[in-house]
Design goal:
Layout lengths: L1 H35 L5 E4 L1 H13 L2 H30 L2 H55 L3 E4 L12 H10 L12 H16 L1
Parallel strand pairs: 1-2
Length: about 210
Amino acid sequence: MFKQSRAKLTRWILIPALTLAATGIGYRAVAVAIESRPPTVVVVFNLQKVFDSFVNRAVLSAEYKKLEANIDAERMVRKATVENLIAAYDEASDEDKGLLFDQIQQAMGEAEKYIEFTDREKDVEQSLIMQSLFKEIKSTVAEIAEANNYDLVIASDASIELNPKLPFRATNEQISMHRIYYANTHIDITEQIITQMNLELDLKTN
């Protein structure tokens, strides 16, 4: 009886001890693995600067310019229609003024609706252009990171200054969104990204 109790007690003592030992070995293995890794290479880039460098070029692409030209041409036609009706109204007899007035109101309403519709259309197209540009930036960043063995590439907001004219709530939002307060210029690869994207865009357009 005593032997059984002693064996059970020994088992209860050994189990936690072995568990702790195994845990310690596991932690040590992880620590050794971390110690054996080379240092993590972290670089930053200014996302806003990259966007500013290419957004005009993207918006001024052939497809968008064609869309904008068609919209502007149609707007001019509708404007001319309204102006012609107003000119006819000024020269019309009193009997015809009522009908022309209704036509002017209808033409102006249609012109305003067309402007609202095409403004939304242009906004959607610009949004798609920005999304496409963002994808290109991500792709270029990945290429540069893999080619240079960078482990982590962070979009830095260290250079973004607060607008002094912003109201209290907007200022609070900007401050709360700020993530990086300092980034050494030696780890900034913004110009490298801009150069790479310029080369790729030139290859596509030539």
